[in-house]
Design goal:
By secondary structure, the protein is an alpha+beta fold. It is built from 14 helices and 23 strands. Strand 15 and strand 16 form a beta hairpin. Bound molecules: uridine-diphosphate-N-acetylglucosamine. The site of uridine-diphosphate-N-acetylglucosamine (UD1) has 21 residues, from helix 1, helix 5 and helix 6.
């Protein structure tokens, strides 16, 4: 029963270091399964989803050795395509990367239907369409087991035009195609920085992938990959979350180890709200001194405003002058956290895929819960601005994607701590 306790109202000053990107590290860790050799991966974020992925790889027979808190060596030479425990794979969405990696390496893979945050329907039809274009047969059993196999000839190259822009399907099909003879072309591909990061990792292992970061990716199949050393890119969503926190509380924080280009859509919205964002080579300095102005956001695939920053900006909008409209353009139902913000006093109306947030009403600390990873981050941001004490439950969901969130915020002056309940005597100073 871990909880986060926050006493709001403290401006933030100082420096925050950003970890490697969770959503890049996940496919890269699973892609190590494609490699019969040693992959040394640095800048790995020490978050629960990564620990779980490494555990899954170990159950498949890969050797996993932590070389430090943010470095791992994975040697999948002796790995084999067995079914990992459904308990493990259902705990997170990214376990579906086993399908692409398993098909590419062994010509077969099995996985329990992937879990993860509940944003409404999360189909994998585009992943299946991509695998089928490469010659795989994908079946789902009644109890939710997904099996992907290929006949004796192995996978072949294919042309795939995705019906929707899907990050996961783009990454998964890239993995499967990397050793398929001939040239595979993926059109209407996702363009997120983590697509480029996986392509760079695979190319460092000997793959021949071009066009990652555009909507057309070309993959020339190679016969085998080899080991490599690789460092994961910084986490733009972790960085964006702290940028929103500084904008919410006021103050000035330098956020280190970022790629400012990846943050452009977030920076643009903060500037529209009257927050200053200074871009340095690998850092941004966020300063808020003035009241927050209203603005509107629609989330879109990259380079649009990221859906994974939508809840954090909803919390920020609660503090702006006037009514802000927040439209979700990626997921069917990503407003489950709104009820929790309302418990803190937020005035939010949700109509279909748009939340209208009337800012300016004071937030008051109370007990809330993290309904999902980024929804939990929104509770932290709101709690940092609320009067009195906010207690956040279900923080294991936040810890899936943020390493040492409490320590990083404490270091810049927040009154925040993590407690294990029941412990009636713990109180913030
Ligand atoms: C990833 C991220 C998630 C983020 C999302 C969008 C990980 C582990 N998760 O999720 O945090 O919110 O990208 O940036 O990296 N779709 C289909 N059919 C498919 C696949 C997707 O219709 O086969 C739809 C989805 O329902 C959704 C949209 O496409 O509406 C985007 O989904 P997708 O980009 O695939 O998200 P994930 O990769 O699952």
């Amino acid at each position: 029963m871990e909880k986060i306790l926050i006493r709001g109202g403290k401006p933030l000053y100082g420096t925050i270091e950003i970890d490697g990107m969770k959503n890049a590290a996940l496919p890269i860790v699973f892609a190590a399964l494609l490699v019969p050799g040693k992959c040394h991966i640095d800048n790995l974020p020490a978050v629960k989803d990564i620990a779980l992925s490494l555990k899954i790889l170990e159950t498949l027979g890969a050797r996993v050795e932590m070389l430090g808190p943010n470095s791992v060596e994975i040697d999948a030479t002796c790995a084999c395509p067995i079914l990992p425990s459904a308990d493990l794979t259902r705990k997170m969405r990214a376990s579906y990367y086993l399908l692409g990696a398993g098909l590419g390496r062994f010509g077969s893979a099995m996985v329990g239907y992937p879990g993860g945050c509940d944003f409404g329907k999360r189909p994998i039809d585009q992943h299946v369409k991509g695998f089928e274009s490469l010659g795989a047969i994908v079946e789902e059993s009644e109890d939710g087991l997904i099996t992907a196999t290929v006949g004796e000839g192995g996978l072949h190259s294919g042309n795939i035009f995705f019906d929707v822009v899907s990050v996961g399907a783009t990454l998964n099909v890239m993995m499967a195609a990397v050793t398929a003879p001939g040239q595979t072309i993926i059109e209407n591909a996702a363009r997120e920085p983590h697509i480029v990061d996986l392509a760079n990792f695979l190319n460092t292992c000997g793959a021949q992938i071009t066009g990652a970061g555009t909507d057309t990716i070309k993959i020339k199949g190679v016969s085998e990959l080899h080991g490599c050393s690789y460092a994961i890119i910084p986490d733009m969503i972790e960085a964006g979350t702290y940028m929103a926190a500084v904008a919410a509380t006021s103050g000035q924080v330098k956020i280190n180890n970022v790629i400012p280009k990846h943050l452009e859509s977030i920076t643009a919205k903060l500037e529209e709200m009257g927050v200053s964002v200074e871009e340095l080579d690998d850092a941004v300095v966020v300063t808020r001194t003035e009241p927050l102005q209203k603005c509107n956001i629609k989330t879109l695939p990259y380079p649009g405003f990221p859906t994974d920053m939508q809840p954090q900006f909803c919390a920020l909008f609660c503090l702006a002058e006037g009514t802000c409209h927040l439209t979700e353009g990626v997921w069917d139902n990503r407003f489950r956290y709104v009820d929790e913000l309302r418990r803190l006093g937020a005035q939010i109306e949700v109509n279909g895929k748009t939340a209208s947030v009337t800012g300016g009403a004071p937030l008051h600390g109370t007990s809330v819960r993290a309904v999902d990873l980024r929804g939990g981050a929104a509770m932290v941001i709101a709690g940092l601005c609320a009067d009195g004490q906010t207690v956040i439950d279900d923080i294991h969901l936040i810890e899936r994607g943020y390493h040492d969130l409490v320590g990083k915020l404490t270091a810049v002056g927040a009154d925040i701590c993590r407690v294990v309940y029941p412990d009636p005597i713990v109180q913030l100073s």
